[in-house]
Amino acid sequence: MGGGGQQTEPAEPGSGKASGVYTWEEVQKHCSRKDQWLVVNRKVYNITQWAKRHPGGSRIISHYAGEDATEAFSAFHPDLKFVQKFLKPLLVGELAVTEPSQDGGKNAAIIKDFESLRAQVEKEGLFKAKPLFFCLHLGHILLLEALAWLMVTYWGTSWTMTLLCALMLTISQSQAGWLQHDFGHLSVFKKSRWNHLVHKFVIGHLKGASANWWNHRHFQHHAKPNIMKKDPDVNMLAVFVLGKTQPVEYGIKKIKHMPYNHQHKYFFLVGPPLLIPIYFHMQIMNTMITRRDWVVSFPDTARFLESHWFVWVTQMNHIPMEIEYEKNQDWLTMQLQATCNIEQSLFNDWFSGHLNFQIEHHLFPMMPRHNYHLVVPRVRAMCEKHGVPYEIKSLWRGMADVVSSLKTSGELWLDAYLHK
To answer: Which of 88, 104, 120 is the last residue of a domain?
Structure first.
């Protein structure tokens, strides 16, 4: 069955024959775990079996089942021509000529302008990395690591020396976290193979974590930021309730795993101190065992301190922003509603690994971070043109907003729990 009667017999799923003509209504029916279609540049693909072999993981591609994945497809793949050959056998047809290129409530004008912006910055070479920048960054990490171990070797393990070395390892581990992020996003080398190789070295040998675990988790966050049941970063395992929708749902259902009205207080005891040494460590260990992906761990003291650093930097860009169920929005609108920036300064750039430019990073995940500031004026102009809020804060305001957001969500839960 095709749009307007143009197709009477659908193509065999996965046959690669572009004989089907479909409406969005028909495409959207194929969004279950055992039946998944998506659209890229108006072409309809059956990814049901391919999802299991998808290099980025099955979940990220499945999040777009029944939807238009064109913008995400462009954002995550450095060589689109190369990837197209994997799509060809999955082709089952195309959208009917009467159907719009976008599904749901996506803004066609924003999509067109963003495509033009992406083409412009690519033409200007803003997706090309500066090797010296990343070599120096790796160099200062290795220097701190070596100094810490040398100090212990030659000056012993007094309390003062232990704390000083733990501080140095905290800095090096945090900065290694930002560096592995660069390689994980394929934003340094032209060839994906080299990015993957160095990524495994930095995250595996310097941080004792799993590249597979990070890739499968982090790209879901980028594909569907702050979208419940799709973004793993807002899955708080019932320890916290986030946004304005989830607290009310929990309250109405009388769910009380924790005293959520006090979550802005116990966040300091549970969030920053324990995320890396316990929660991430358990996930990494699970990945190591189930996937036989063996890695090496680092001292727990440095992990404990690094966890504070990591949590504040990564959460201040997202937790205070909108956290909702799927709205099926265009790429720019979806990313801007879930993301905010922190003011630029030399310290903020270094401290956050340039993730103070979180908006630009989410819009262009493969862009080298040293170029984020160059595209900011054009992104802000586009947002102003289309009435999309572009939020930027001071570092301290961003941190404070994490706590105030948790407080607001906790109050919403308590009100719903008691009165609804």
So the answer is: 104
Q: At what angle do helices 263-274 and 300-315 cross, to 10 degrees?
A: 130
Structure tokens at 268: 């300091």
Which pTM does this prediction carry? 0.83
Question: 204 and 97 in one domain?
Answer: no
Can you give 378-417 as a three-state secondary structure string?
HHHHHHHHHCCCCCEECHHHHHHHHHHHHHHHHHHHHHHH
Start-to-end CA span in the chain (Å): 45
What is the SS3 assignment for 340?
coil
How many angstroms separate the CA atoms of 359 and 392, rounded?
A: 9
Same domain, 232 and 352: yes
Written as one letter, the residue type at 28 is: Q
Split at pLDDT 50, 70, 90, the class of 283 is low
In a domain, 298, yes or no: yes
Q: Which domain holds residue 397?
A: 131-419
Q: For 216-266, what is each residue's pLDDT tens digit?
A: 889 999 999 999 999 988 888 788 888 999 999 999 999 998 899 998 988
